[in-house]
Design brief:
- Helices cover 38% and strands 12% of the residues.
- Strands 1-2-3 form a three-stranded parallel beta sheet.
- The two termini are 26 Å apart.
Amino acid sequence: MCAYGCFLSCQYIINNAETSVICVSKQNMPALMKSVTKMPSVKHIIQWDVHAKMNNVEDVVSEQDKATCAAAGITLIGFSEVSALGKDGQPNPAGPEDIAYIMV
């Protein structure tokens, strides 16, 4: 029950902050997928996925989750893909209209 209540709080914050990108672990994907259509500002979901150093081979991005997200107009990719995109050598510096949130 607490996890469900906490997720409703997250959903409320995501909607009110008009968050467009969510980073989520594989174990929290099922809860997120239940409410993904109730968060209209979300355009991208980045799932922490397989990483050689972590030996977390079960954390692959599911094709079913990708399809569910695509139907809602959301792109779902793994962090390994985001990391690979950053290695192309094309800098994309932040501008004054860009917002960042760093959680410590």
